[in-house]
Amino acid sequence: MGITIQNITGNTAMVIWPKMASCVDSFYSIMYHPNWNSMLSSYSKKSFQKEERVPTTRSSFVVENLTPLTTYIMCVTCQSANPSSDQCRVFNTLERDPASVSNTKKELALGIWLTSSVLLLIIAAVLLYGCLHLLCRRRHERLQEQNRTAKQEHEEPWTRRMAYSSEELSRQSQQTRDAEEKHPGGIQLATIIENPSVRNEPVMPSSKSQERASKTGQCSAIN
């Protein structure tokens, strides 16, 4: 039939065949299989791992996604026919193409770079969130401390005045009790003397004192 395999690489191969005048089907069937063993395999279609269908207007086809350093058998027949031995060719693929290796390395490097970038972005976002949360917490604590200090400063004079007033009242009460114990009859006079708020006011004599003074004046006039 004159089937030839050309441009063999590690992953591709081109198969060329002459047009078949006896083929009345609408397309050709291109079948290929790796690691072919003619002793164990027949030439039936079910024995082939891959099959490609090409219109009968074409006479060549590039098979892709082959495995490097592998022996393949490839056959070309009409759509409905099983291949015969003269319609098949055996060939070996080469090592992996340098361009394919380079592309694979580039894809691997790009994948690693993208993964690293995503991880770095996630880590940066977590660190930024932690820093902002810590700053907000410290600022809140600082504001609370300032409010607490201002409240203490506002309450301290009032507390001091209340303590001073209580102490002054206790001292005056104690002085009043001491004066009462020493001079039971002169409580009012002692209170007036000890009370600084009325110390400068004139002491008004009582009604009995006024009576005694008037009688004493009358007696003095008679004498």
Automatic annotation (TrEMBL):
Every Fibronectin type-III domain range: 1-96
Region (Disordered): 144-223
InterPro entries: FN3_dom, FN3_sf, Ig-like_fold
Residue spans of biased composition, Basic and acidic residues class: 144-159
Keyword Transmembrane among record annotations: yes
CDD domains, A to Z: FN3 (cd00063)
Keywords of this entry: Membrane, Transmembrane, Transmembrane helix
Transmembrane segments: 110-132
The UniProt record lists the keyword Transmembrane helix: yes
PANTHER family: FIBRONECTIN TYPE III DOMAIN-CONTAINING PROTEIN 9, FIBRONECTIN TYPE-III DOMAIN-CONTAINING PROTEIN
The protein's name in its UniProt record: FNDC9 protein
